[in-house]
Amino acid sequence: MCMTLMEAVNDGEDLLTTVSMPCIEVGTVGGGTVLGPQKSVLEMLGLRGAHPTSPGQNSQGLARLIAAAVMAGELSLLSALAAGHLIRAHMAHNRSQANTEPVATPATPSSEKGPLAKAHLGRNKD
């Protein structure tokens, strides 16, 4: 379970946003970390393997990075909602009933009458 909380601070001048992800499981040692893409990304982030002096520090860093990405997504979504952009985007991209074209049901091979369908079904007598 993850939770994003927002509250006004400094007499309403600032917004404090927190993301809690108490059940996130990450690792920088073993498992899938030996696979090429995972290994490369962990190396690029400087989080591959165990921390030399503080065990668990690399895993904590990876968890913080994931939480920061989640927070960025949450802020983006909430700002789009607040500004009305999300609704306008859905309306512009035919996600409203008024603009949606009826969906055509494709014909099944058994209902087709052409020579390819007959050949496909083993009924081509020509």
From TrEMBL:
It is an enzyme of class 1 (oxidoreductase). GO terms for biological process: coenzyme A metabolic process; ergosterol biosynthetic process; isoprenoid biosynthetic process. PROSITE patterns: HMG_COA_REDUCTASE_2 (PS00318), HMG_COA_REDUCTASE_3 (PS01192), HMG_COA_REDUCTASE_4 (PS50065). SUPFAM superfamilies: Substrate-binding domain of HMG-CoA reductase. Its EC number is 1.1.1.34. It holds the Pfam family HMG-CoA_red. GO terms for cellular component: endoplasmic reticulum membrane; peroxisomal membrane. GO terms for molecular function: hydroxymethylglutaryl-CoA reductase (NADPH) activity. Residues 93-126 are annotated as: Disordered. Residues 94-111 have a biased composition (Polar residues). This is hydroxymethylglutaryl-CoA reductase (NADPH). It comes from Psilocybe cyanescens. The lineage of its organism: Eukaryota, Fungi, Dikarya, Basidiomycota, Agaricomycotina.
